[in-house]
Write a structure and sequence with these properties.
It holds the Pfam family Oxidored_FMN. It is built from 13 helices and 15 strands. By secondary structure, it is α/β, with parallel strands linked by helices.
């Protein structure tokens, strides 16, 4: 196969961290942790298989019990969580990789059947859809509106979780303010009805995300902290309002901290908000492209368009999920494995997780059929 030369394979750098290429494995919730949120040895295998990524951003991990979203997601607020994650980071480091950990509080995206707790949120506005729990899909509950003390405690929980992540061997953390979870709920006008300085005008709606990020940076150093946002994303019932004002304002408030990066989910270089954020942000931008097709050519085309539009690193989710050797495949122009969606979440086990073949271990078509034959409970 012919090797392809592109900026995707050039070395890059974050503060204090050299990256061998510009391809980032995006955080992907896979529900393979223990019920209490402790990472498992299977997860160590999964991430070590993908250690050729320039950077791995590990899946969303909760900073406190009430922040839990779904069953079997990871957490990072107890010694057992730290020890479990240490097995993962050791395995990735032994395979030559580097990892950040995403910190995520679900806010109203949670359920008492999963966490044993009533979810909290900026305002008592329920998720307008069902949510998966250990008992199957259940109607969402109305969250409890966070008090001023809840806000202060949650900020402190994020900072403590960041310290735990460093103790677990991560190079840094990513604060998750996207995809309709707690921090994004504070940004959005339809989920944040507050009048106390954390809601209303743009400057107030960005305050919670800014304060969490500032506290995490103060705890572990700004150069070890990234922030993920997804401007205009409507997942989990979000309607932001004033999107083109929100994100440049957030970039301007945090731009002087010296953060490791700003991560833009569902980045479209043709949109005004992308151009405004790129202009406002003085540091590294990780951009997660909207892929029209998950193919070698589709991934390369979308990624190179973002690099041309000022992105520094490219985050890919499903392509890394199905291709542990994605960097090699893109470099050689080799075809990609197809994602087996039914093994994505809630099913546990190795199927659709650690059994995707690398180029030198491609099974026969009969073997692939056998692998996909039985659903893992």
């Amino acid at each position: 196969m012919t090797q392809h030369t592109t900026a995707l394979f050039e070395p890059a750098r974050l503060p204090g961290l050299d990256l061998p290429n510009r391809l980032v494995m995006a955080p992907l919730t896979r529900n393979r942790a223990k019920a209490d949120g402790t990472p498992t040895p299977l997860m160590a295998t999964y991430y070590a298989q993908r250690a050729s990524a320039g950077l791995i951003i590990a899946e969303a991990s909760t900073p406190n019990p009430v922040g839990q979203t779904y069953p079997n997601i990871t957490a990072v607020h107890s010694p057992a969580h730290v020890a479990g994650w240490r097995q993962v980071t050791d395995a990735v480091r032994d395979a030559g990789g580097r990892m950040f950990l995403q910190l995520q509080h679900g806010g109203r995206v949670g359920h008492p059947a999963t966490s044993g707790l009533t979810p909290v949120a900026p305002s008592p506005v329920a998720l307008p859809e069902t949510i998966f729990t250990p008992e199957g899909h259940r109607p969402a509950v109305v969250p409890r509106e966070m008090t001023a003390e809840d806000i202060r405690t949650t900020v402190a929980d994020f900072a403590r979780a960041a310290r735990n992540a460093i103790d677990a061997g991560f190079e840094g953390v990513e604060v998750h303010s996207a995809n309709g979870h707690l921090l994004h709920q504070f940004l959005a006008a339809n989920t944040n009805l507050r009048t106390d300085g954390y809601g209303g005008p743009v400057a107030a709606r960005i305050r919670f995300t800014a304060e969490v990020t500032e506290a995490v940076a103060a705890e572990i150093g700004a150069g070890r902290v990234g922030l993920r946002v997804s401007p205009g994303n409507t997942v989990n019932g979000i309607a932001e309002g004033e999107t083109e004002e929100l994100y440049p304002a957030l970039a301007e408030r945090l731009g002087g901290l010296g953060l490791a990066y700003l991560h833009l989910g569902y980045a479209d270089p043709e949109t005004p908000v992308y151009r405004k954020v790129r202009a406002a942000w003085p540091g590294v931008i990780i951009a997660n492209p909207v892929l029209e097709e998950i193919s070698t050519e589709g991934v390369r085309r979308a990624s190179e368009a973002l690099l041309a539009a000022g992105a520094d690193l490219i985050a890919l989710g499903r392509p890394f999920l199905a291709n542990p050797d994605l960097v090699t495949r893109l470099r050689l122009g080799a075809s990609l494995n197809e994602v087996r969606d039914r093994y994505f979440m809630y099913v546990g086990g190795a199927a659709g997780y650690t059994d995707y073949p690398a180029l030198d271990t491609q099974p026969s078509s009969e073997s692939i059929v056998a692998l996909d034959g039985d659903r893992v409970a």
